[in-house]
Structures are given as structure tokens and as C-alpha cells.
Amino acid sequence: DETEFRNFIVWLEDQKIRHYKIEDRGNLRNIHSEDWPKSFEKYMKDVNCPFKIQERQETVDWLLGLAVRLEYGDNADKYKDSTPDGAKNADNAAKNAEPLINLDVNNPDFKAGVMALANLLQIQRHDDYLVMLKERLTQDAIAKASQSKEGLPVALEKHILGFDTGDAVINEAAQILRLLHIEELRELQTKINEAIVAVQAIIADPKTDHRLGKVGR
């Protein structure tokens, strides 16, 4: 909203940045003026903002960063001694870092999520969802995944997933799994081709009798 944006800029200047003297903020405060964009553009130059007036999101981020730096500079002694709330915050940080530690596998939402993911990735379903997970986490599968492979980097945004989960992170994970699945299929196809060539080498070596005009033994 244009009015809210202009009020936001005025609030930042009045309360945090304070680049202009109070008496010099009149043009910026006159948010209903047709000349306000010119006043805002001049203000951006005066505070050395590197972005253009059209780049609003970048400008907002930059001005907020400036405001935070100035706020900290005015209250450095207050903020430099700030510490987390002890063990509680440390525990929360540990939980956030290891979200699978407290995972409840019997939670209905977890079960529904596993089944939904199986459908999206076209993984064969099983009555017991834990068995389905184990089939994908066998020792052989883990050992194979642990083997280092050299290859070219892949730009995920250039590959169409074919469906949308509604979550960007899950979409990216699904793209990776699908590409890995395609790689496995290609390896299988290569082995099939090698087997076909080997069989042909055995059976496709007939003796030729040109006098009879036929091929045979």
C-alpha cells in the first residue's frame, strides 16, 4: 500500500535513522504530496542508499539494516552484553538443529505425511508405513548412497518436477529424488544393454556358406 509505505519511510527517519534535522523532514513527511517520490529519491541519495527508487523491496531491506546499525550504535553497551536465556534457549537450539530426535513415528500426521510423500514420489506403498521406509533405508541402499561419485552439478530449476507439493523445500527434495531415480534407471538400462550385447556375441556368429546362398551351421 502506497500510503503505508510512505508512512513507514517517515517513521524510520523520525524514530531510527534521523539523518535530517527535524525542520528538514517536512517534504518527506508530506506523504500526500505529488512531489513525495522526488523527496524520497533525494532522501535515498542523502543516506547513500545504493538502490533505485523502483527497487522498493531492496530499499526497504537496506533502510532497515541502516536503522538496526544506528540503533545498535546508540545502545552498544546495552546490546553487547545481551545473552540467551541460558539452558532453555540452548535446548531449543539443539532441538531445532536435530528435529528428528523428538520425532513421534506414531503420530497420525507423520503417517499421513509418509503416505503422501510415497504417492508423490511414486514409491510402492505398503500396509505398514515403517516397513515402506525400511525398504528405502536398507544397508545396501545406505552403502550405495554413501559411495562418493563425481559428476557435473545440476541446476534444479531447469528440471520440471511434474507436480507441486505446495512446499518449495519438499518440491526441491522431490526433484533430487526423481533425478537420483532416473540415474538408477539409466544404470539399469546400461547393464541391460551390456547383457544384450554379450548374448548377441554368443549367438550371432553363424558360419556362412556362400555356395548355398544361406547362413547357418
UniProtKB/TrEMBL annotation:
Pfam families: RLL (PF10036). It comes from the Eukaryota. InterPro entries: RTRAF. Belongs to the RTRAF family. This is RNA transcription, translation and transport factor protein. The gene is Rtraf.
